[in-house]
Amino acid sequence: MPAAIGGALQLVQIWAWSRIIPLCPGLGAPRVHMGLHQIDNNRVLPGAPYGAMWNCEHTFTRTVRTTVRVIRDILDEMQYDQFIWQPYDMESNVIMAYAGNFNPQLWRSICPLIFYAIVEMHHPERVLRQFGMMQNIPDQPDTRDMSLHKITRSNRTGTDWVLQHILYITRWQRRYDTVIQRQPISNRRDTDRGYWEWYNNITRHFVFVVY
């Protein structure tokens, strides 16, 4: 794995397995049941993490190869119905076991996500179809937030990160004020007029590979 890549790549990989159908490992293979864990008479927690859903017998004919060239070809040839538009797998025992601790409104809050020195902006308004809402043309991202990617903890011993990120902490405290609400998806349309023209002008249609 290149040293320049950081972040929770395992979470991204599991997200890709659960959303991008052609990338799901072991397509059609029987799953290995991991069992449940009984805490008390009222609560049953899953006995394995969410990623264990793909615990199955892997074969060359059913498992997507890890070659970059193959993965890029799969992404280039994807069809519309091969991506699952949903925020979370609410049929999962793992998620439902802890759902009582979550407020689903936070899934639609435009707010900063803060972990010690790391701050990333959460932009659900750019993927509204995952939340069952009509997708409009989103506003341009705030360029001031791009400076967050340049922050490093190198030679920053003693830095007061609360003071450093006080602006974003304040925005997080007001997270319920920035919950986005849009028109639900209708039977015929899931985007506003003009969205696809805008999208086709700004997106990368193919992942070009230099062999």
UniProtKB/TrEMBL annotation:
Record-given protein name: Aminotransferase-like plant mobile domain-containing protein
Annotated PANTHER family: PROTEIN MAIN-LIKE 2, PROTEIN MAINTENANCE OF MERISTEMS-LIKE
A biological process from GO: meristem maintenance
A Pfam family this chain is assigned to: PMD
Organism this protein belongs to: Sesamum radiatum
Origin organism lineage: Eukaryota, Viridiplantae, Streptophyta, Embryophyta, Tracheophyta
Domain Aminotransferase-like plant mobile, residue spans: 5-200
